[in-house]
Amino acid sequence: MPTRYPLRMAEIQHLSPQAHKRLSDELHDLTTRGRIDIANQIEVARLLGDLSENGDYHAAKEEQGKMQGRILHLSSVLENCEILAETSTTTVAPGTIVGVRFEGDPTTEKYLFGSIEERTEGIDIVSAGSPMGKALEGAQVGDHCTYEAGAGLLTVEIVSIEK
User: How many whole angstroms separate alpha carbon 158 and alpha carbon 136?
Assistant: First the structure.
């Protein structure tokens, strides 16, 4: 009798309308133009002869595998997402950029609170499921949040919240 593993529920991704559209467009492109392009590359590589020593063929097949992995990932994210309405700037919530100051450090660091798919150039992501993210969610400017990290307990002060 085969071993059965319990199904794991996919994590809900919180996406802005812009990120949702960007991911939907990327998925559409990969499942249409992308699949046609890679199939053409594989066919051209096959015409070059012996497949066992055909670098072009193996590279195209590897690229096909990576593309299929991205398609599966995007499909999962889009099937298990919640599109965010207007983002609050009074509390840390998905889609906000939060400025924090680590205890004992005078500099302020900014993080986008949310999904990696919301990535913004120059701003690191902190996910809601991470130890820091769990501590920050719902906090307001001026709050001090403590969380367990590999080096022990860390405390951060919320200094700003932006869209």
Answer: 8
Q: What is the pTM of this model?
A: 0.71
In one-letter notation, the amino acid at residue 151 is A
The helix or strand, by DSSP H or E, that contains position 147, with its residue range, turns out to be strand 144-149
Break the chain into its structural domains and give their ranges: 13-83, 97-162
CA angle at residue 146 from 77 to 19, to 5 degrees?
20
Phi, psi torsion values for 90, nearest 5 degrees: -100, -25
**DSSP conformation class of 7:** P
Q: Which CATH class is domain 13-83?
A: mainly alpha
Print burial letters for 129-148: b (CB count within 10 Å at least 16), e (below 16): eeebbebbbebeeeeebeee
CATH of domain 97-162: 3.10.50.30
Please list the pLDDT of the chain residue by residue as tens digits (163 residues): 555 555 455 678 888 888 899 999 999 999 999 999 999 999 998 888 777 788 889 999 999 999 999 999 999 999 998 888 766 678 898 888 999 999 989 999 999 988 888 777 888 999 888 999 999 999 999 999 999 988 789 999 999 998 7
